Amino acid sequence: MKTVNGLVDYLFETNLMSDVEIVKDAVSRTFLRSGKEVIEDGEIQVFMTTKDDRIQDLISEVAKKLPDKKHDLVVTTPVTGNKNFFKFVNDQTMTPDELSPTQNAQ
Hints:
- The chain has 106 residues and is of the alpha+beta class.
- It has five helices and four strands.
- The chain is elongated, with a radius of gyration of 17 Å.
């Protein structure tokens, strides 16, 4: 859990996500491996929100920061939603260039 908290802190500091939900209780995965059922308990789910043009950066940073390379990332795009929430997400996930446009003009 310490690794996940460190990852979340880093992603907030770098504006790669606007909000997060961490589910750590009673998460279990069941799947088939070589025809046999495998159950992995103790999994943590992390739901993060970012804007479309930051998705690849977010995926890359998660891959770099997680020591256990056995993780899944699923990306979904909302079809509808609250325009104020979308503005919040956009504002919270600005790139450094977007945050200081006056520096780019020089």
